[in-house]
Design a protein that fits this description.
Chains A, B: Keywords: Flavoprotein, FMN, Monooxygenase, Oxidoreductase. Chains A, B: GO terms for molecular function: monooxygenase activity; oxidoreductase activity, acting on paired donors, with incorporation or reduction of molecular oxygen. Two copies of one chain form a homodimer. The first copy, chain A, has helices at 40-52, 71-74, 85-93, 112-125, 154-172, 230-239, 250-266, 288-299, 304-315, 340-353, 357-366, 376-388, 404-419, 432-436; strands at residues 12-18, 57-60, 100-106, 130-135, 180-183, 188-190, 200-201, 206-207, 222-225, 242-245, 275-284, 371-374, 394-398. In chain A, β7 and β8 (206-207) form a beta hairpin. Chain A is α/β, with parallel strands linked by helices. The interface between A and B is large, with 71 and 70 residues. Bound molecules: flavin mononucleotide (2 copies).
C-alpha cells in the first residue's frame, strides 16, 4: 500500500465546511463568527486560508430539509440557513486556484442528468477540482419536500444509488476528450464519431443522453462516499475514491479501513485508489490542558434540554431525572434494549474524563465523534500513528469554531505535519485527482 | 405607464448569453472566439464589459438535452457544450458587482424544493441579483433524459408551472426577513415564530417545507417568463416581472405588449411591474450598409444543408430543388397547409432585401428573429421608437458574434442611448429589482 512516489505515506486533509462547524455550540463560542455558516465574506476567507494550508479539499455536506428535530432544538442550530452546495462551490471556485471542491448530492431525490451536468460544469469552472459525495440522504424529513410521505427504503435507496452512479459516469463520458475540433473552415464544431448516446435503461432509471457538456477536466470528478451500513460500504468499495467515515477510535478505524480496502480489492480495484478519511474534530492549543478546557467551554454552550435528549439516546435510557451536576449514576441506569456498546461507551467516557451528567450530555449534544484535542505536537503524533497503522489515509477535519479553530489548524498543526514530512508543503498538481494521487479515469466508450 | 421618477421612460437591456450568440454561424465569423460559449475566461470578460455598459442582466437560456436536430446539423452547433446556468452564474457573481444574473430553470423536469433553494442561494451569493426564467421546456428530447418516452403535454406543463411558481415563492417566504436573531447569550439562533411551514398539497405537487435557507435578498428573485402560447401569456401576466418574447415586427410587438399588460391589469397587477423585453439581434457598424454586409457575411457561414431545411420549414414547402443562387421562384412555391403568414413573410423578406435562395435559407438557418442592423444612431432611433410606442420596455440583446459584436454594442450603441437620456449612465441601486424598477415582494406569511 505504499505511495507510488518514494516518500513516506502522506496524509490527505479535507475540511468539513457545511456547516462550518459540526459542533452545535460553535456559533456561541467567544470570538466566533455567529453567522459564519451563512456569510460569504467569511467563507471566502476560510477557503483561502485552507488553500494556504494546502488542504486537499473543502467539503460540503448537504441536507434536503432543515434538520430533523423539534423546533425548540432547531431554533438553536446555526445550520438552519446554509448555502446550496453547487452555487457556493461555484462561487468559491473563482476566489481560489488549487483546493478541491466537494459537494454532497443525493441519488434519492435528484435526477442523474442534473447531477452529471452540474458536476461536469463545476469541474470545468474550477479547472478540475470537483468531487461528488454520493449520499442516499440520511434525513427522512427530506422525503416530504419531494412529494412523498415516507423516506425511500434503505435497500431501495442503495440500489438506485448504484445504478445512478453508472448513469452519471456514463453521461460524463458522452464526448471523447478530443471531440471538439471547432474547425472554422469546414464548419464542423465537433466530430460526431466522438459522441456516445448512453441509452440507459435499468430497474430504476431511464436516461437517453448524451450530456450537453464536454467531458469533465478530471475525466470524472472524484467520487466520495460516506455510507456506513453494509450496502454503504459495498457501494464505497465499488465506486468511491474517497471514503468519509466516523469510526469511534483507532481500533474501529483499522477494522473499517481493512474492510473497505479489502472489499475494493475484491471488486478488482487498486486499494490505493480509495482514500479513507475519517471525520475528526481538531482542537489545537498551547497545552493539552488548554485544549481540553476549550473543548469543555465549547460543550458548555450546548443547551441542556437538547443535550440531555442526546445523552438519553446514547444511553438508550432516559437521563432527564439525573442530577445535572453530579457524576453519572451508573447503578441507576436501566438496562437497554438499544445498543449496549453505545451505553458502555458513554459510561467509559464519563469515568475517563470525570464528567458530570451535564458535561456528558453537552458532549453528546455538541459533537461526540472522533476528536484530536491537544498541542500541534500531540495531534501530529496521533495523526502519524493513524497513518502508519493503516487506520486512515488522512482526515476530514471538523473545526470546533471559526475563525480561530481553523486558523489554529492551518497556522500551527499543518506546519508540524509538514516538518514531519507527512503532509505536502505545496500542491504538486492542479486538479483534485492530482492532490489525492488518483488516476484520471479512461472514457468507457472511446480509446 | 409613466415611470415613478420624473424622467422619460427608460430602456432596460439584458444580454442573451447562453449561447453567447444565438446565430448558428457566430463561431465561424472572422475574429470571433470559436470556443466563446464554453470558455470561462471569455465569459468573465463579456460579463464585465456588459456591467461596464450598465446592462440590467446577463441571461442564460437552458436546455435539458442537446438540441433537437440530426447529428449532421448538430455537429455544426457551438451550443452543444455549455455550462450549466446555476454553476456558471454563481461563478460569475464573484467577478461582478451589479449586473443581474438570470438563469432559466424548468418546471417540468425539476423539483420546486431544488429550484427555490438554488435561486435563494444565488440571490444571497450575488447580493440580490438573481432572476428565474420560468420555462416549461421547449425541447421534447429532454423528456428522454428524465425517464420518459414522450414530452409532458403542453397543458399539463403549464398547469404544473403555475402551481410550481406558488410552491417556489411560498418556500422563499419560509423565514421572515428578520428571523435570524443569533442571540449568543440565550443561545437562540432564530425566532421560531418567524418560521412558516408551507405544507403545500396541490394537483401536481406536494411539498412540506420549510426551505433550509434564509429569505432571498430580493425577497423573491425576479420572475421572468418566455412562453408565447395562450397559457404562456397568461402565466406571464399572472407571475412574470420580465417577459422575453420574439415578435416579428413593431406592430406585432405593440399587440403583444398591449395584450400582456392588459392581462396583468386584469389579474390585479400594476402593468408597470412587468417589463416586456423582446429578443433582438443587434449589429452595429459605421454605416447601415456595412452593418448589413456583416450580417450577410455572418449568414453565409451557415451550412447550406441545414439552412435549406430551415427555409423549407418557414415556407411550409420543400425548397431543396430551387436554384440556390437565383431569386426565390415565387410562382413555383406550392400552396401550404402550414402557416400562410409565415410563407408570405418569407416572400416579402426575399423581395425587400433582394436575397437569393441561398441567402434567404442562411437567414433562416442563422437567426431570423427581430434584428436591429445599422449605426449607433439608426439603432438608437429604432429602439427609442419601440419604447415610445409601447412596443417594448427594452430588449434582450442577441449578439451576432463575440467579442466584437458585443464590444460594438457597449462601446458605441450604449453611449448613444445614454446621450438621448433613455438608458442609465450608472446603476442607481445594487439589486436587479432596483435596476428594473420593481418592488421587493412582501412576505406572504409575515407582516
Ligand atoms: C463524514 C460524513 C459526512 C456525511 N455527509 C452527509 C450529507 O451531507 N448528507 C447526508 O444526507 N448524509 C451524510 N452522511 C450520512 C451518510 O450518507 C449515511 O447516510 C450515514 O452514514 C448512514 O449510513 P447508511 O445510510 O449507509 O446506513 C455523512 C456521513 C459521514 C460519516
Ligand atoms: C427570448 C426567449 C428565450 C427562451 N429561452 C428558453 C430556454 O432557455 N429554454 C426553453 O426550454 N425554452 C425557452 N424559450 C421558449 C419558451 O419557454 C417557450 O417554450 C416557447 O416560447 C414556446 O412557447 P409556449 O410553450 O408557451 O407555446 C425561450 C423563448 C424566448 C422567446
Amino acid at each position: 500500500m505504499a505511495e507510488s512516489k518514494s516518500k513516506s505515506k502522506q496524509l490527505h486533509l479535507t475540511a468539513f465546511m457545511r456547516p462550518v462547524s459540526l459542533h452545535t455550540g460553535a456559533w456561541r463560542y467567544p470570538g466566533a463568527y455567529a453567522d459564519a455558516n451563512f456569510n460569504l465574506a467569511h467563507l471566502k476567507t476560510f477557503i483561502r486560508k485552507l488553500e494556504e494550508g494546502k488542504f486537499d479539499a473543502f467539503f460540503m455536506a448537504d441536507h434536503l430539509a432543515v434538520l430533523n428535530m423539534p423546533v425548540e432544538a432547531l431554533k438553536r442550530s446555526h445550520t438552519v440557513t446554509s448555502f446550496e452546495p453547487f452555487t457556493l462551490l461555484s462561487a468559491l471556485s473563482q476566489v481560489t486556484e488549487r483546493i478541491g471542491l466537494a459537494a454532497t448530492a443525493s441519488t434519492t431525490y435528484d435526477e442523474p442528468y442534473h447531477i452529471a451536468r452540474r458536476f461536469a460544469s463545476l469541474d470545468h469552472l474550477s479547472g478540475g477540482r470537483a468531487a461528488w459525495n454520493i449520499v442516499t440522504t440520511g434525513n427522512p424529513e427530506s422525503a416530504k419536500n419531494f412529494g412523498r410521505d415516507e423516506h425511500v427504503e434503505h435497500a431501495d435507496r442503495y440500489r438506485r444509488a448504484r445504478e445512478f452512479y453508472d448513469v452519471v459516469t456514463g453521461l460524463w463520458d458522452s464526448f471523447a476528450d478530443d471531440a471538439f475540433v471547432r474547425d472554422r473552415d469546414s464548419g464542423v464544431f465537433f466530430d460526431p464519431e466522438k459522441l456516445h448516446v448512453l441509452n440507459h435503461q435499468g430497474p430504476d432509471l431511464k436516461v437517453k443522453g448524451p450530456l450537453n457538456i464536454a467531458r469533465p477536466v478530471q475525466g470524472w470528478p472524484v467520487i466520495v462516499q460516506a455510507g456506513q451500513s453494509e450496502p454503504g460500504r459495498q457501494l464505497a468499495a465499488e465506486t468511491a475514491e474517497v471514503v468519509f467515515c466516523s469510526p469511534r477510535d483507532r481500533a474501529a478505524a483499522r477494522d473499517l479501513y481493512a474492510d473497505i480496502k479489502g472489499r475494493a480489492r475484491a471488486a478488482g480495484r487498486d486499494p490505493d485508489h480509495l482514500k479513507i478519511l475519517p471525520a475528526a474534530l481538531v482542537i489545537v492549543a498551547d497545552s493539552v490542558d488548554q485544549a481540553k478546557a476549550r473543548r469543555l467551554q465549547l460543550d458548555s454552550l450546548v443547551h441542556y434540554d437538547s443535550a440531555i435528549a442526546s445523552l438519553s439516546v446514547a444511553l438508550g435510557a432516559d437521563a432527564s431525572g439525573f442530577d445535572p451536576d453530579g457524576p453519572l449514576p451508573v447503578d441507576d441506569i436501566p438496562e437497554t434494549n438499544a445498543s449496549k456498546t453505545s451505553q458502555q461507551g458513554v459510561i467509559k467516557l464519563a469515568q475517563d474524563e470525570g464528567l458530570t451528567v451535564r458535561q456528558l450530555a453537552q458532549r453528546f449534544g455538541g459533537y461526540s465523534g472522533l476528536a484530536f484535542v491537544g498541542t500541534p505536537e500531540s495531534i501530529a503524533d496521533e495523526m502519524a500513528t493513524w497513518l502508519a497503522e493503516d487506520a486512515a489515509d488522512g482526515f476530514t477535519v471538523v473545526f470546533p469554531f471559526v475563525p480561530q479553530g481553523l486558523d489554529d489548524v492551518i497556522d500551527r498543526l499543518v506546519p508540524e505535519l509538514q516538518r514531519r514530512g507527512i503532509f505536502r508543503r505545496d500542491y504538486e498538481g492542479t486538479t483534485l485527482r492530482e492532490h489525492l494521487g488518483l488516476p484520471r479515469p479512461k472514457n468507457q466508450f472511446f480509446a
